[in-house]
Amino acid sequence: MSFVEQPVVALFLSLTLGYLIGKIRIGPVQIGGVCGTLFVALAIGQLGVTLSPDLKNVAFALFIYALGFTAGPQFFNNIRGGLRYGILSFVEVATVLALVAVAVLLFRLDPGTASGLFAGSATESAVLGTASDAIGRLPLPAAEIARLQANMATAYSVTYLFGLVAIVVFTTQIGPLLLRINLREEAATLARQLGAEDDGAKENGVPEIVSRTFRAGPVAGGTVGAFENSVNGVVTIEQVGRGSGFVKATPDMQLEAEDVVLVIGRRRSVIAIAERLGAEVPMPAGDNVPLVERQVVLVRREVSGLRIRDLRRLASDEQRRGVFISHVRRLGQGIPALPGTVLEQGDILTLYGSEEAITRAAPELGHLLPTTSATDFVMLGLGVVAGLLLGEVAIQVGALNLTLGTGGGALVSGLVFGWLHMHRPQLGGIPPQAAEFMKDFGLATFIAAVGLSVGPDAIALLKQYGLVLPVLSILVSALPGLASLYIGRYLLKIEAPILLGAIAGQHCSTPSISALVSLAGNSTPVIGYTVTYAISNVLLPLMGPVVVGMVGMIG
Description:
Elements: H1 7-22, E1 25-26, E2 29-30, H2 32-45, H3 53-81, H4 83-107, H5 111-121, H6 126-136, H7 142-179, H8 183-193, H9 199-203, E3 209-215, H10 224-230, E4 235-242, E5 245-248, E6 260-266, H11 267-273, E7 292-298, H12 308-314, H13 317-320, E8 323-330, E9 333-335, E10 348-353, H14 355-361, E11 366-368, H15 377-391, E12 394-397, E13 400-403, H16 405-423, H17 432-454, H18 457-465, H19 468-491, H20 496-506, H21 510-520, H22 525-554
Antiparallel strand pairs: 1-2, 3-6, 4-5, 4-6, 7-10, 7-11, 8-9, 8-10, 12-13
């Protein structure tokens, strides 16, 4: 076994087998690679293999900084104006803290076990890093700190699995049952209210934005601008075929009966206005207008909070001509780009149209994202160092020594640098794929290091608590969702699909939102998920030191 006992081999073997185990799916539940990595690392750790604490700290710093960087744009906006959904994240934090406090009183949990219960039941792995750092700062012997950190990892490994199953079952089965709804029907109704196309079009793969050519026919004699205004700008005449070729259409161009007009717009809108034009004709080969897609980050505050349809109505005739929003990405999740979809600051909008139209419209929304795929290591290094320095700041409140620690400092720094990058995309860039790798590899490496360091202490904790931890994890996972279900439905009046998505987000549960979207038949639950996910992904990790301090006060 000497080969396996080499630290580098043990790390990558944990990642390999862990992510392989994480692919196993039982119904809607898939434990994921991070939890699978911890299981394998716990097993290999019985051989006495450990990783350098420095590697563990570097991995966690990269993960938590990237987490803050990607969440920054939406986090600040949601804290300021998205509390209709975001308040559920505060319900999650308060309820989980209260339940863990009760568990500490009843079962005399130590700081490590309580932190692991909090992290596993809330399915938020980042809590392990901030709590581990807080435990390491306790005035205790090194052996006792190692035991508490081992208890934290073991408790997390047990409670995560049961907490994950509990929240997936709650959001997909129990929640709709308590609300007395058919989730698929509710989601379809909500999508239609937002302006969705018919389901058959989606199933057949018909594109949302289309271009078709017609004879001018009945609109001959009028101008291009007059026709577009008569249909409220929902379509654009991009080119006009006259004589031997096509020319670019302008608002003041007068149409003739034999002209061929190239119309661009949403599929439903183009179909609706077809009866106002002449016969549809094929586009001559070689005359297709070059249409492109460009991504722009939504920055302008006065645009945030508007629906897509309202955005088009407020834009001038020239600004909206020939450009359409085809996709919206929020926190890496695609949300429905429907006329009724509300846009938020930090959204990544995919604009579809001619190069000229996109260049004209983009500054009215925010900044075009640079096409470079390189990571700005200058700003990355500066951001991580700033976070580590911030984590060293301590405030004495009575008997408590409050500090953000390494994890909390890097998280706050990532939030700030991510927000700055939204306003200045040319600075501090981390491509989405690179940020995802930093999060995935950083967290998996940190989890593997934690699991390998546990050793025989895991068996002792399991013998001590037996079935107590699994039962606690189910309660601590499901009860916050239950509280949010009734608060969201009867006090906040949130639509059921969005509410269930928000509950999955407050729990930071990607398997839950995946199962919800599959069950709903469309992506409307993601609208609520992105708001609470952004807030909970920041609040929950910051609670690691709070849990450790709370246990000390109770004890």
